[in-house]
Description:
The chain is mostly helical. The chain contains eight helices and no strands.
Amino acid sequence: MLEQISRIWSRYSGVYLDGLLGTLWLSLVTAVFAVLIGIAVSMLKRSKIRIVKVIVDFYIEILRGTPILLQLYFFWLLLPKIVPFEMSDTACIVSALVVNSSAYVAEDIRSGIQAVDDGQREAGVSLGMSMRHVMQKIILPQAIRNIMPALGNEFISIVKATSLASVFFVSELTTAYRTVQSATFLAIPSLLISGLIYLVLTFSMSRVVGVVEKRMKAYDR
């Protein structure tokens, strides 16, 4: 087995590295846009207009309550038919990943904001600050410290979720495994290489998230 893995890696390492770059690219793009949309969704969720809150709650529950693979198929099939321009498979899958992740990011942000003591909000208002300034100067700086670890974990989840893009032949790490397996007919060794790369990647990111979380806790003290 080890000999087969070594032989596959020596010949197809470029395929795996291209897949790794594809995974990182998909993850980064998804994370950036998911955070932007998640911020907007979390702000709308705090709206005093009931219909807005109902729509946002429905949006979050649908995305968190249905399988992500189902959502990928939905976007892959629907988007090319409703948008006035041509969309590639990659664009459809990225859109689905972004929308799915934005629901989780929105909940992370909401939880981070709610974790800030209401007394600080009331104190800011009593000093004559507007709610906008209270949010910018008092609430958000503290909420960010609460949110960052959750966002780090969400990014790790995004990295693992990108593996589903292989179903649609989008270039990433699991697609690299399928390519190598088709060329070598050695399914298990090819799969083990992809699995080890995923493990190293997610373990490294978990360690970074852990370090950041510890430093933030130390800062709070």
